[in-house]
Amino acid sequence: MNMTFLQEMFNSITQRDALLRRKHPETLTPDHHQLVKACQALLASDGEASSIALASRALAIYQRLSEGEKRQFFKRLADDFAAEPQQIDSAYQAYQRARDNHTLQALFEACEPRRQELFRRLNLATDGTYDLVKMREDLLQLLREEPNLAPIDDDFAHLFGSWFNRGFLMLKRIDWNTPASILEKIIRYEAVHEIQDWNDLRRRLDARDRRCFAFFHPAIGDEPLIFVEVALHKGLPSRIQPILAGVEDGLADPDDADTAAFFGISNCQTGLRGISFGNFLIKQVVQELSQELPQLKYFVTLSPVPGFAQWLAEQQQEAQWPDSIREALDALATPNWQQDKAREERLKTAIRPLAAHYLVDQKNRHGLPLNPVARFHLGNGAELHRINWLGDVSAKGMKQAAGLMVNYLYVLDDIERNHENYTAKATVACSSEVRDLARRARKLAKGETTK
């Protein structure tokens, strides 16, 4: 096949698409009625070329809507572009009579909301995939106030699960030679440990003991989907400050490293929240690192525990904990408490068991761990391996988790089993050390003494 010809044809369609966008200027203040009409025209279109132009026009209108008009558009999507009840009833009756593959397929098609076909056609436009990801980002911001819009999000999630299938994703190494446009996005999207400036970024990317990898999708170009920062280490790291400062304890040379520590995993696209490709990313990174550095034995994270400090504050009011625990927790209100050795030791004794209890036993309404970072790594097949006292003494770390950080351990031979147990039974895979700490917290809750 002549790939040059295909590329030229694609460029021609792209240029014509852009030209047609310019030929259809909308009013200065487009509204959702205008967009609904454009979407209906797109669904009625038969030709591929005209569909591309109509999809581009519809997306151009959407991007110019106010927040209020976007809200109204989503409401119209929920009502006017749902599945047709009469068609479902008719298809179901036909299936009851025949019970064959033909009528079953017709029933499937009748049950599918018209929104899904609309999204597929909008995806034909240049940059349509990315525009739809941004559209879902807008929708997610509305869901708390507009729970009736949840079926639209289900449609997005269903389609994105296929469009962002791991087979389409490309893993790339990010280093100082990566184009500046991508490096700027890495700085902007870093969600775990803020990158201060270009010098900070260079320290994280250019040092011999650092690696950074990102996933990209061919339909989105140079917009990263998710990226992971890695520090090569001797032994499992317990503190983030030396890593961020570029000072590795006990590591004289990267070739001496036995551990790859994932210290920053950032999802870059809010519109892809809940679309899982983290497991694949970590596996791919492990494979890349194993090929480059076969001496590596351990693959762990050094992860934050967001929300733990808030949960701790709630526990201070709980009558189930002994007075000694609640009194120790009162010290958290003292500025710079970690600098007082006696106070710090009392808090350590009280908080580490509570942290294990929080991560292992405390569940949300879906029966999954309360902590979102725990859900991510446990769902990807990791083991809750170690709770690190004062692992992050930055202002953010102290505020969100009383300085705690966690190591989640990825053992390739155990990933699938851990993932299946977590998915089927919400089982939290954890080390004996963490299990013992959680057991100690349960005894404290019952008023039993611990050794």
* Low-pLDDT runs: 1-7, 19-23
Order of helices and strands: HHHHHHHHHEHHEEHEHEHHHHEHEHH
Gross geometry: globular
Strand content range: 5-15%
Class based on secondary structure composition and strand pairing: alpha+beta
Q: Could you report the average pLDDT, rounded to the nearest whole number?
A: 90
Textual characterization of the structure:
With 451 residues, the protein is of the alpha+beta class. It contains 20 helices and 7 strands. It has helices at 3-23, 32-44, 48-63, 67-80, 85-98, 101-111, 114-122, 128-142, 150-163, 180-189, 198-206, 241-245, 278-292, 308-315, 323-330, 341-360, 372-379, 395-401, 415-425, 432-445, and strands at 170-173, 210-216, 226-233, 259-267, 298-301, 383-388, 405-410. Strands 1-2-3-4-5-7-6 form a 7-stranded mixed sheet, with helices on both faces. The protein is globular, with a radius of gyration of 26 Å. 33% of the residues are buried. Residues 1-7 and 19-23 have low confidence and may be disordered.
List the defining traits of the structure above.
disordered N terminus, 7 strands, 451 residues, 7-stranded mixed β-sheet, alpha+beta, globular
Please provide a brief summary of the model.
With 451 residues, the protein is α+β, with helices and mostly antiparallel strands.
